[in-house]
Amino acid sequence: MFTAGRGRLVTLGAVVVGALALSGCASSDPLSSGGSEDSETLIVGSQAYYSNEIIAEIYSQALENGGFTVDRQFLIGQREVYLPDIESGAIDVFPEYTGSLLTALSDGDPSGTSEEIYTQLEEALPDGLSVLDQAEASDQDSWTVTQAFADKYSLTDLASLTNVTEPITVGGNSELQTRPYGPDALAEKYGVTIAGFTAVQDSGGPLTVKALVDNQIQLANIYTADPNIQTNDLVALEDPDGLFLPANVVPVVSDKVNDDAAEILNGVSAALTLEDLVSLNAESVNDQRSAGDIATDWLTANDLL
Amino acid sequence: MNWITNNLELIGDRTLQHLAIALPPILLSFVLAIPLGWLANRFASTRGLVLTIAGLLYAIPSLPLFIALAAILGTAQRDPINVGVALTLYGLALMVRSAADGFSSVDSDVAQSATAMGFSTAGRFWKVDLPLAGPVLLAGLRVVAVSTISLTTVGAVLGIQSLGSLFTDGFARNIQAEIWAGIIITMGLALILDFVIVQLGRVVMPWTRVATTRAKKRDRTAVRAVLS
Amino acid sequence: MNLFADAIAWIFDSAHWGGPNGIDSRIIEHIAISLLVVGIATVIAVPIGYLIGHTGKGRGIVVALAGAVRALPTLGLLILLALNLGIGLQAPIIALVVLAVPSILAGAYAGFDAVDRRIIDAARAVGMTEMQIVFKVEIPLGLPLLMGGMRSAVLQVIATATLADYVGGGGLGSFIFLGLQTGDYSQMLAGSIVVVVLAIIFEIIFSTLQRLVVPAGVTATQSPRVRTRPVRSRTA
């Protein structure tokens, strides 16, 4: 290689340096530990869930409109991945869901109304973290069947699942099996026999919906704000006993979030209704619009921009 | 198609993030594999050990390795370093075998003549072994480059943004155009990088640019590389 | 290293064996998927590889195909297939077959290609037909390299079949994803360790097969493992 002459060696070296420089310039700061120095800069995170990303984008644009600089760190992954980061203050603002977060933070089996869950959540949060006002919008787990299935067995609420005479296969994320509202809870609390469990890791997404519609599974865990429920004629079974906790959208914030920022975020939460969330999601899934566009339109429509 | 034209900036960002994660491991594994491969070749006792370890490394499924590295390195789970180190390990696993094969393919007659002419071991390494092993090393580097670009996408499942994020997002929102975009650009990047490496090889090893009868041998070398 | 101790303990915990989610059921699922995939890939790739190797034409296709598939992100392909085909094994099997074909194709082709042309000439001179040459000369002599290709394919498939669970296909990936989603790292590592052990076992099986498959009376000089130097042609 080096008998090929100095010129070639220099070329090779230049290319190598160039490649490294390219990757150096391109990489955004990978360090996730350590918050931002500037008091005007807030780090907003989101789950790896397109709906959560939209809400996070709404928070971000509203804060930017209020004069803050926002560092977006979206699509982080499951709660077990980002929760330590929020606790350490590496993230300042994160859209969360009251019931789900409470379940993750506390050891016992919490229950209650929307307000009660909110109060319990405030107490359960570690030091350095707090929640601002919760929105009316909620996005909780549900047990969902197709309209046809519901009609066939006259299904209205979870207890009516005992009407079903054919074997019920349940579909959802793997961890659904260990959740307090999982298939075991259905068996214990309502005496429903579950024939099997099919793991599909799309969190009630299109694969699960397709499996439900194709009758490969009969019962699935689909988020209540999912636009697929309306598009595909699905029915979320009623939950009078409160097997599922209310999961209102609420911003989890670190100490860095001052009163001005809090006021902006509370304004957003006040305006975010249940129907709003479903239609925001529909724009993303059915119209394939980006989170940024959807957020801007919603904020403008609600006079928050 | 609409989705793609509406999201060019996002696609561009993801491509840059992807390259930032994938390129350093490719270079690093190449540089580290050369001395390791040379050592493996020189000492018969180490050869079996090194190749076995390389084979084992490659058998480790990628997702768990990314997470295990987070635990071992003490980094945050969504730190791209985890993916970088894992990719370097995979690259090493592939490249060390290539390097060992490359150095062993140096004709012993030539090696002995070099020593007879007075080359020191180091001199022989730089001026004889390395250039002669060049074509095999190049074939190995091409394989590593292409696999690394492709494997980087798996990190998206952990929230490490790359072109793989187009898969996970397209999955959740059922936007197939997004997934197609991710697949095609990933493949495009890999093939472009492959082409660049081949051209670099021709610049740095001009003696390999000889008559077309070499094409057969080049293909053979490439096929052997595929079998690794 | 505590993590690994926990993972090993997880594997040996008897509560995790038995039943549809047990380690044993998942191992069997995983092996079944992998062998099925390699079987299908072999049926597709071997005839094509033999054809290319025997006629010597289309050599470039082998290299190009191998390169293209190596560049193809399997996760993306799997997701695309699953969205169109639904949950279950269809999507993972197709994606994994695509992954496995190039290695087997390369092995089949390389096996034929490594046969000394003079042997083929001799076979022709003795009066063998083309088909006889293929079946009596090239295939037996090429078996070790074909085995090498299959071995490489099996290894990749076993490691990547962990993705099958992502779309409801089961297999050892179930421990990995369940562990990932619940933060149960011992389970996740346990699943990976089992996959690695499985890969090692199949590596041993196939490398033994590779040695056994060498025709009697032929030394194992055709295997890339053993012969790493190019054949030195005598000019004098």
Write the layout of secondary structure elements.
The complex is a heterotrimer of chains A (305), B (228) and C (236).
Chain A: H1 6-26, E1 41-45, H2 50-65, E2 69-73, H3 79-87, E3 93-97, H4 98-105, H5 114-124, E4 129-131, E5 143-146, H6 147-153, E6 168-172, H7 183-190, E7 194-199, H8 206-213, E8 219-221, H9 228-231, E9 234-236, E10 249-254, H10 259-271, H11 274-285, H12 291-301
Parallel strand pairs in A: 1-2, 6-7, 6-8
Antiparallel strand pairs in A: 3-10, 4-10, 5-8, 5-9
Helix pairs in contact in A: 2-10, 2-12, 4-5
Chain B: H1 2-6, H2 8-42, H3 44-59, H4 62-73, H5 80-104, H6 108-117, H7 121-151, H8 164-173, H9 176-204, H10 213-226
Helix pairs in contact in B: 2-3, 2-5, 2-7, 3-5, 4-5, 5-7, 6-7, 7-9, 7-10, 8-9
Chain C: H1 2-12, H2 23-55, H3 59-71, H4 74-85, H5 90-113, H6 117-126, H7 130-160, H8 173-182, H9 185-212
Helix pairs in contact in C: 1-9, 2-5, 2-7, 3-5, 4-5, 5-7, 6-7, 7-9, 8-9
* Large-scale geometry of chain C: elongated
Largest interface: B-C, 57 and 54 residues
Largest sheet of chain C, described in full? none
Unreliable spans of chain C are 222-236
The residue-averaged pLDDT of chain A reads 85
Write the H/E string of chain C, N to C: HHHHHHHHH
What share of residues of chain A is helical?
40-55%
Mean pLDDT of chain C: 86
Oligomer kind: heterotrimer
What is the first-to-last residue Cα distance of chain C? 60 Å
State the total count of DSSP E strands of chain A. Answer: 10
Low-confidence stretches of chain A: 25-34
Number of helices of chain C: 9
Radius of gyration of chain A, in angstroms, nearest whole number: 23 Å
**In whole angstroms, how far apart are the ends of chain A?**
61 Å
Number of helices of chain A: 12
Strand content of chain C: under 5%
